[in-house]
Amino acid sequence: MSENTTATTAPRPPEPDFGTITTGELLAYREAENRFRASEAARAVLGEPHPGATIHWQRIALPGRDLPVRVYRPAPAEGDEDDAQADLPLVVHVHGGGFVGTAAQCDWTNSHLAARLPALVVSVEHRLLSPTDPLPNAADDGWAVLDHLVRHAARWGVDPARTAVFGESCGALISALAALRAREAGLTLRAQVLVNPVADVTGTMFGYPSMAEYAHTSTLSLPQLRLFQRLAAPSETDAAAVSPLYADDLGALAPALVVVPTHDPVADHGRRYAERLREAGTPARLSEYPGAQHAFLTLPGVEPQAEAAQTEILRFLRAALAG
Q1: Which tens digits make up the pLDDT trace of 126-152?
Q2: Is the bond leading into 118 cis (omega within 30 degrees of zero)?
Q3: Does 181 fall in a domain?
């Protein structure tokens, strides 16, 4: 999905066979599914945006390309349209989905964070996985947006010393990699929030008990994950370089909140990553939501624990980003 405005109606396409899907079928499914996720019809499942936040698409000029981002900002005070807040905390968000997905599917949580922290929240419309776009491309997009926003903080009205990264699923993987790159670049982050993270795309990706126990849930199944791995890390890719679980050094990173729905094939990815962070001396809080499924934070219309998780994330970031 790019910079299309929210459509009033968009039917949801049938789910394809992820085990046999062709490139053409994948691209067609992605386009139709992302139209649905950005439509008003989807809000019954994805949630209504907070009225106290403005939302718009914007393009960031990066070397060799322009990248769309979805920008959430606290709404001006009533009667004062020019009352734009400056020196806001910055939250750089990355949506989940891997080979499908759009920042618009996260309007509910991101608009609440923008209005209630308050903060500027910028969600990266990264390149989606395909045979020509493996995971390093998406990871580069996440890091490039974070780096750009911090270097141009005054232009965006943010305080670069109060910056956090936040991602869900594949977006959590990209956010974790961005936190690692931030440390290497000398950029100090205040926090990282990783929700149902995929932390391992190596050959051990499927060797966790949660993968067998929750292999076929309604929100994520092994065929989807196997397609994800094939696209994310082709045979010529150094898979360990895009699997934060196997980073050489997880010390001196931003404090992490790792949110794990228990009925999720990748639940053990999140548990193990939180454990590895703590072993390396990085503060990491593991918060589990019993019975919740993968992507539950984006599904407040059907997942009763989404609101509680959103509130926990809000409190964590409010404390971490305090002036």
Answers
A1: 999 999 999 999 999 999 999 999 999
A2: yes
A3: yes
